[in-house]
Design brief:
The protein is of the alpha/beta class. It contains 11 helices and 12 strands. Strand 9 (about 240), helix 9 and strand 10 form a beta-alpha-beta unit. Helix 7 (about 190-205) packs parallel to helix 8 (about 220-230).
Length: about 325
């Protein structure tokens, strides 16, 4: 017959073994970017990782290394198989990604979109820029620089929800000045080399087709367009870029790019993980529903992280902030 001391020791040993087997597992959250090689997405990832560290969670940043909606779909499918605590995703192509987003939510995985939305999907809500308003901001700057006439070339990625909204806002403002015409809309496919080559072609136009301005509606093309202008030794072409990549900021400082529309990518990633954490640990009674039309929805439809126009008057502030956060 066991003594009381033996019984106590046995209980302690079992508790110790049980404790080892039930060691706390970290929540795992995925962020799926449209192009993990871009400085913009590396900044988003910094915010995502920072918030994960504060919560003691594990962060995984995945996605293609160039603009590739099918590659992004593959990254999303792999993430869903792991069944993470939540997924943050930028939507490069709604037609490619919507079904998998809906399947993830149907399986109980919270999905929040950032940067580029999929309004018709069952994502919970969108965190990012009011892209129509940001397009208007770029358009207003262009009107300020060009006056009443000029030929404008737009570099973009057609079909991506955020760039389509930016283009709409830009066109709304330019429509108030009939003499300013959008001469061409160029699909650069998220490729810097394509942007450079196309810029060289357009900058060679003369006469009535001479290019007055180039507007870049995504982050990739700002620096290559700037390089093409320097090579052509032109000083009378206005460039409105997008985002605050170091190369774009340097080109603003040297005067090749007039201004850029800076978003808040770090905030998107940081706030995105915090909200995924909240949803995972305090989920709604039903995750797979249309919260947009729910009068008592616990979630907003859209969280605007804000934009700023950066030109030579404030570019040094952005360059200093970039250097401090490397």
């Amino acid at each position: 017959m066991k003594t009381m001391k033996q019984i106590v020791l046995t209980v302690l040993a079992l508790a110790s073994i049980s404790g080892c087997n039930t060691e706390h597992k970290k929540d795992v959250y995925y962020m799926i970017a449209t192009n993990v090689e871009l400085p913009y997405w590396q900044t988003v990832a910094n915010g995502f990782n920072k918030a994960a560290a504060q919560y003691g969670a594990a962060a995984r940043v995945v996605g293609p290394k160039s603009y590739d909606p099918l590659g992004e779909l593959d990254a999303l499918q792999q993430a869903v198989r792991i069944r993470p605590a939540g997924i943050l995703i930028s939507v490069s192509d709604v037609s490619v990604l919507q079904r998998e987003i809906d399947l993830a939510v149907q399986e109980g995985i919270p999905v929040i979109t950032i940067d580029s939305d999929a309004v018709i999907s069952r994502r919970l809500f969108f965190i990012g820029t009011n892209n129509v308003e940001a397009g208007r901001l770029g358009g207003s700057r262009l009107v300020e620089k060009l006056g009443t006439k000029g030929n404008v070339i737009v570099f973009t990625i057609p079909g991506q929800p955020n760039t389509e909204e930016r283009l709409r806002g830009l066109k709304e403002v330019l429509s108030t000045q009939p003499g300013i015409k959008v001469a061409d809309i160029v699909d650069i496919k998220g490729n810097a080399n394509t942007a450079f080559d196309k810029a060289q072609q357009y900058l060679g136009r003369t006469g009535s087709e001479k290019v007055s301005a180039i507007v870049c509606l995504e982050a990739t093309s700002g620096r290559p367009v700037s390089d093409a202008i320097k090579r052509a030794n032109l000083h009378n072409v206005e460039v409105i870029a997008w985002d605050a990549d170091p190369g774009t900021l340097d080109a603003i400082r040297d005067g090749t790019i007039d201004a850029t529309i800076a978003q808040k990518p770090y905030t998107m990633g940081y706030f995105g993980l915090k909200l995924l954490y909240e949803v995972f640990h305090a989920p709604p009674p039903q995750l797979y529903k249309d919260f947009r039309s729910d009068f008592y929805s616990p979630y907003p439809v859209f969280i605007d992280t804000g934009t700023t126009l950066v030109d030579r008057s404030n570019v040094d502030l952005y360059l200093s902030a970039t250097a401090a956060n490397k």
